[in-house]
Amino acid sequence: MNTQKLIIAGAGPAGVSAALYAARCGITPLVLYKDGGALEKAVKIENYYGMPAPLSGKDLYENGLKQLQSLSVPIRKEELLSIEYDEGYLVHTTTEDFHTQALILATGTKRNTLSLKELKKYEGSGISYCAICDGFFYRQKEVAVLGHGMYALHEAKVLEPLASKVTILTNGKKPNFPLSDLGTIEINTKAIHSAGGEPALAWLKLEDDSLFPLSGLFVALGTADSTDIARKLGLMIQDNHIAIETDTSTALPGLYAAGDCTGGMLQIAKAVYEGALAGTEAVNYLKHLEKL
C-alpha cells in the first residue's frame, strides 16, 4: 500500500494549482492523472491573464506538468477507478492502491454522454451511474454496464457477485481492457439505438433491431471523473457537479474539489483559483490533524 499525506486527482489547471500551493505551504502532494482532459483538446487559449499571444491547451497542459516537475512534486500517470472513505481515503487505480489523509478531486467533468433520447426518462428507474451505490437493488437480476474501458470493467466486477447476469455493452466500440479479466461477465459490442419499458427500463434496441432485455443499465463511459467518484462516496451532486463549500471542502473531512467538476464557469481562471484554495485548505486540514 502506497501511503501519502495528500493526493490530488487531476493535472489540469485546478490540480496543478492545488499541487503548487500545497507544496508552497509545506506539504508535497502526489498528483495522479490520466491525461489533460478538455484542456488538452483546446486549439487555442487567448482569454487568460499573462498571454499576449494565443497558446494551445496542449502546450498549457504540458507547461503545468513541467512546473510540477521543477518543484519536485511527484506525478503518476494512473487511471482512477474508485475511492473509499474509512479513516482516510483508499484510492484505487488500474495498477496500484494508495492511502491518503486528504484528497483533492480535480479530474474535470465528462463531455461524453450517452446519446439516448430516453436517458432522462429512465434515470433512477433503470439507468444508474454508480454500481456501488445501486447494485444492491439489482440482486439476482440481469444488468448491463455501458462502456468500453477499464472503468466499465471495474463497475461490472462490482455487480458480478450481485446480479444474475452482467453484460458490458460497448456501444459499437472496441473493448479497451483484457478480455481474460471478464470472468463470468459477457460482452456485447453492438451499438444501442433506443430504450424502452414501463414503468422502468426493460430493454434496449440494438443496431440490428434485436431487443436486449435487462433490469438495469450502469453508465461507465470513458474514465471515472470527479463527479463519478463523489457520487460513489455519497457526496451531494447538484446539476451533475460536486456541491462544495466556499472553501472548496465537501461533506467528508479532508476531501476537497476544484475545477470544472464543481460547476459554474468552466474556465481556466476559475479552476486555478479553486485549485489554489483547495491546496491551501487541504494543508491547513493536515496540519490541524497533526496537532490533535
Descriptive notes:
The protein has 292 residues and is an alpha/beta fold. Helices cover 27% and strands 25% of the residues. The protein contains eight helices and 17 strands. The strands form four sheets. Strands 1, 2, 3, 4, 5, 6 and 17 form a seven-stranded mixed β-sheet that branches. It has a five-stranded parallel β-sheet with strand order 7-14-8-9-10, covered by helices on one side. Strand 15 and strand 16 form a beta hairpin. Helix 1 packs parallel to helix 3 (57-70). It is globular and about 55 Å long. The protein starts with a strand and ends with a helix. The mean pLDDT is 92.
**How many β strands by DSSP?**
17
Distance between the termini: 25 Å
Tally the helices: what do you get? 8
Large-scale geometry? globular
Report the major sheet: 7 strands, mixed
